[in-house]
Amino acid sequence: RSLTTKQQHQQHHHKQHDTSTRQSILFLSPTSWPEPNATAAGTRTMSLLQHFSPSCPSIPSSISSSLFHSVHFGCGANLPRLYGKGSNGYDDIQWHRVKPNRPDDMVKLIQKIETENGPVKAVVFDRFYAEEAYSFRIREECPNALRVLDMQDVHSLRVGRQYLVDQHDKSNIESSVDGKYSLMT
């Protein structure tokens, strides 16, 4: 049986945009774009974005093709020129402006990503405020997506860890005969 021209066009269009095996990851920050030359958090975030990108050189292509087809970063701030296409070596990352607490904007962004690149399978919130501002809509629109709260900038965790280490060290140190300290085993 032969197909009409319209059916052939629809079939060709479906093949071009078949997203059944493709998946996307979305990073969200309500207030700031990653700044790898300014902060350690920016450097780490850019490393994560690059790590998940389809052309990551440190991951064999046989594995990377099964991870994410596309990597996206959404932020409420105006997009700086640094993130223009081809300007910084981050061509595999798609940059989006999406203001916090604007449900319609988030829905449009998710629909755009999923139409062009496949379902959003993971969302990384860069801090509590990002989770508060975006997660309710992510839960509704992408119920099967893994949601991750990135704790890299939570200074209270660092302080708490240091306190526990210090307390542990104090309780495990004993004075030796020569007056030097050694850890008890």
Describe this structure in words.
The protein has 185 residues and is an alpha/beta fold. Helix content is 41%, strand content 18%. The chain has 6 helices and 7 strands; from the N terminus they run αβααββαβαβαββ. The chain has helices at 5-16, 40-52, 61-64, 103-117, 128-141, 155-171, and strands at 24-29, 70-75, 93-97, 120-125, 146-149, 173-175, 181-183. Strands 3-2-1-4-5 form a 5-stranded parallel sheet, with helices on both faces. A two-stranded antiparallel sheet has the order 6-7. A hairpin with a 5-residue loop joins strand 6 and strand 7 (181-183). Helix 4 (103-117) packs across helix 5. The protein is globular, with a radius of gyration of 23 Å. The model is unreliable at 3-19 and 174-185 (pLDDT under 50).
Outline of this structure?
The protein has 185 residues and is an alpha/beta fold. The protein is built from 6 helices and 7 strands.
Count of DSSP-assigned helices: 6
Tell me the strand percentage band.
15-25%
**Separation of termini?**
79 Å
- Give the neighbour order of strands across the main sheet: 3-2-1-4-5
Which structural class do the helices and strands define? Answer: alpha/beta
Largest sheet geometry: 5 strands, parallel
N-to-C order of helices and strands? HEHHEEHEHEHEE
Low-confidence blocks of residues:
3-19, 174-185
Report the helical percentage: 40-55%
Record field, number of beta strands: 7
Mean pLDDT: 76
Tertiary shape: globular
Radius of gyration: 23 Å
